[in-house]
Specification:
Length: about 260
């Protein structure tokens, strides 16, 4: 398989751009560009709602949601950070207030996915994919993460609550559609792992953050290369947690050898 780079990678920009090279996976990646005055204007004109996030962020920290608002024929701009919402009339002052927050750090802008909700709280999904003891990519865990009321991120470290995926999906689709989606998510995770290996990125476990819109398109929000296994311990049924931990032990042992 040729020489491989290290087994974790923090830059969302690099991880996204590698996946964009896959004809199969790229249609599921929300358009992502570097943060700047021109790119912000273009992305807001194109999508109306975008997420702005640190290139190397974790735990949902620094993630903002920006959108255009049309009111009586006039466009204004709105930004949410945590539960705080700020509104501005002019694009230039809007950009400058965002720029103040980003400072000299590298940020990305991503097409915003209007996430499905559970009891009025946004949720997304985490797909855990690991190299099996037999050396093959395998989806070992699937879990939902529900945002705190009014929040725009679902991360556990930001008040998000892990929840069984069936519980979240059941009010949005029937059982057969659910089974089909779960199959699609498992395959998607494995395809992503395989593609990274093809591109010589030697990850052994990945956690794919997937956002669902009303059409149930599984949008790839980001791929984590050191995914938290303990989130699965939050489920009453411990079977996924046990599998994730068992695979993880094998992976860590192999690394030491
Ligand atoms: N384009 C988007 N559309 C909708 N929601 C998004 C989008 N980008 C991010 N989010 C929400 O914000 C959360 C955090 O964003 P993201 O996963 O990209 O960064 P991070 O969590 O800070 O990084 P890490 O998962 O590595 O700790 C996501 O789980 C999701 O709930
Ligand atoms: Mg994340």
């Amino acid at each position: 398989m040729g020489t491989k780079r290290g087994s974790t990678l923090t830059s969302k920009w690099i991880k996204t751009n590698v996946l964009m090279k896959s004809a199969k996976i790229s249609p599921l990646i929300p358009e992502t560009v570097r943060f700047g005055r021109e790119s912000l204007k273009q992305m807001l004109d194109k999508y109306g709602m975008v997420y702005i996030k640190p290139e190397r962020g974790t735990h949902g920290n620094g993630v903002m949601r920006a959108e255009t608002v049309r009111e009586s024929g006039k466009t204004s701009y709105q930004c949410q950070n945590g539960t705080k919402i700020q509104k501005m009339q002019e694009f230039e002052s809007f950009y400058r207030s965002l720029k103040k927050r980003t400072g000299s750090r590298s940020y990305l802008i991503q097409k915003g996915i209007p996430l499905l909700k559970h009891k009025d709280r946004r949720f997304d999904l985490r797909v855990m994919v690991q190299i099996s003891p037999e050396g093959k990519w395998e989806t070992t865990g699937l879990i939902g993460r529900v945002a705190e009321p009014g929040k725009i991120v679902t991360n556990y470290h930001n008040g998000g609550k892990p929840m069984a995926i069936e519980k979240l999906l059941s009010s949005h689709m029937d059982a057969s559609r659910q089974a089909q989606l779960i199959k699609q998510l498992k395959k998607l995770g494995e395809d992503i792992g395989k593609f990274y290996h093809k591109k010589n990125l030697a990850f052994k476990q990945i956690g794919v953050d997937v956002g669902l819109d009303r059409k149930l398109t599984p949008w790839i929000i980001e791929v984590n290369t050191s995914p938290d296994p303990y989130i699965f311990n939050q489920l009453k049924d411990k079977s996924m947690y046990r599998k994730v931990m068992a695979y993880r032990r094998t992976i860590l042992k192999q690394k030491k050898a």
